[in-house]
Design brief:
two-stranded parallel ribbon; mainly alpha; two-stranded antiparallel sheet
């Protein structure tokens, strides 16, 4: 196939030759007029085919590599939003020694703890995969005394033992699975109280659930543990002592009181940040693929111009501009 440039040059030459030919030659050659018309139609078709090939080839050349990476990223994003169950990876010896979350994949995902009573008010805004019983939240909060040390042994986390890190101020990164394992092993210190000194959730819930959740190794749902972790991690895979301390001071300032509303607000805010990040990622993808693929295809094949750059040529006589 001839290139668009050579096709256009041929068209100009034919046009110029016809314009400067003697009048007698033009009048005495009706058959050639038909031939010229056919040639011009063929040239126009070649130009259109060349423009179409350019509109398809360039985006595929420069944007085609984005598609596999985008598929992987979108799967990961959906997994984060839906809180998919953690897999139990078959870690090699080296990975076990270097993994910053040595407890990852060791515990089965707990969908339900068998709790009775009402769910955490406002938990619907967390879009958790399972209901979050208020008694599960109480089981977690009752194992924290308002001090960051009740959440983890920060000085002995794997991140503090990484090579070439500061010995006086090492990174203290608490992974999500390690937090869950720590809470499940911790001792229940007592049913938390609200700002009026009454048991959170009411006396009836305390009477029904305290014996169960105060046992060593009590069953606690993963959705409840994720909700607590997200108050300070905001969707991240790790937490740091400064973020944990800030949150504990706001809704668990000591070993007795629990600000339930403050906790729910923090959990929803942390979850909302994940949603905003996901929405931003979708908008970026729409812009990128609209510019590289969708808009050029609509211009070339449907004569519709929706904006998103200049790539692809729309027929001037038929083009419909939407933006």
């Amino acid at each position: 196939m001839r290139s668009p440039a050579s096709v256009l040059a041929t068209a100009l030459l034919v046009s110029s030759a016809s314009a400067f030919a003697p009048l007698s030659a033009q009048v005495s050659a009706p058959a050639r007029s038909s031939s010229t018309s056919s040639s011009t139609t063929s040239i126009a078709a070649d130009v259109s085919a060349g423009e179409m090939a350019k509109s398809i080839g360039i985006p595929l050349l420069f944007g085609g590599g984005l598609i596999p990476a985008a598929i992987i990223a979108n799967k990961s994003m959906v997994g984060t939003l839906m809180k998919k169950r953690p897999e139990k990876p078959d870690l090699s010896k080296i990975n076990k020694e270097t993994n910053l979350d040595p407890t990852f994949g060791q515990a089965d995902y707990v969908e339900s703890s068998g709790a009775t009573g009402k769910n955490l008010p406002g938990s619907g805004l967390l879009f958790a995969p399972e209901p979050i019983p208020l008694s599960d939240i109480i089981a977690i909060v009752g194992r924290m005394d308002g001090n960051v040390a009740s959440v983890a042994d920060w000085g002995n986390l794997p991140s503090t033992k990484l090579p070439k890190v500061s010995q006086t101020n090492p990174p203290m990164w608490l992974p999500r699975a390690t937090f869950k394992a720590n809470i499940r092993k911790a001792k229940f210190q007592g049913w938390p109280l609200d700002d009026k000194g009454r048991p959170v959730g009411g006396e009836e819930l305390k009477a029904a659930e305290e014996a169960r959740i105060s046992k060593s190794g009590a069953l606690i749902g993963d959705s409840a543990l994720d909700a607590v972790f997200d108050t300070w991690a905001w969707g991240a895979a790790i937490a740091t002592p400064d973020k944990v301390g800030t949150q504990l001071r706001s809704w668990r300032p000591d070993g007795q009181s629990f600000n339930q509303l403050g906790f729910t607000t923090a959990a929803v805010s942390g979850r909302a940040l994940v949603g905003i990040a996901a929405l931003s990622f979708v908008v970026i993808q729409v812009t990128a693929y609209g510019t590289l693929f969708i808009a050029p295809a609509l211009r070339v094949f449907a004569n519709v111009d929706i904006g998103f750059g200049q790539m692809g040529e729309c027929d001037p006589t038929l083009c419909t501009k939407l933006f």
